[in-house]
Amino acid sequence: MNTSPVVIGSDHAAYQLKEKLKKFLIESGIAVEDAGAEDEGSVDYPDYGIKVASLVSTGKFDRGILLCGTGIGMSMVANRFSNVRAALCNDLFSAIMSRRHNNSNVLVLGGRVIGDVLAIEILKVWLETPFEEGRHQKRLDKFNEMGRSA
Ligand code: RB5
Known about the structure:
By secondary structure, this protein is of the alpha/beta class. It has a single domain (6-149), classed as Ribose 5-phosphate Isomerase B, Chain: A. The protein has six helices and five strands.
C-alpha cells in the first residue's frame, strides 16, 4: 500500500464519507491533511476541489481524495489543474484501472452514489495498485504535454 500522505476534501454532500475515509487512512498509518468541509452545512464544491487539486498540482502532496454527491463536479474541477489526473471511481474495477493505466493521483468518489463500505474498499485498491508505466506513460505524456486546448 502507498503510505505517502494524502490530502482529502469534500463538500457537505460527502462530509460524512470524508470523516469515515479519514478514520480509515489514519488507522492504516497514512497521514491525512483535511482541506474541509468542516461540517454538513451547504458549501460550494469547487472551493474544496481547488484546495485539494492545487496541493497535488504543485507537488505538495502526491495524492488526493475528493468527494461530493456524485463525484462529477469534483472531477471536473480537479482535472483543470496541471499534473492532476483525477479519476471518478465508484466501482472497484475503475479504481484499479485508473492506477494501472492512468496513474490517477486524485481519487474521486460520489458520497450519494456508493456506500461507505464500498468506498473504503475502492480506496484500499486505489492505494495498493501500482502504475504499469510503459505504453501507458507514453499516452499520459501526450496529454501532459498538450496543456489546455481551446
Ligand atoms: C451538491 O448538492 C452537489 O451538487 C455536489 O455534491 C456534487 O454532486 C456536484 O457535482
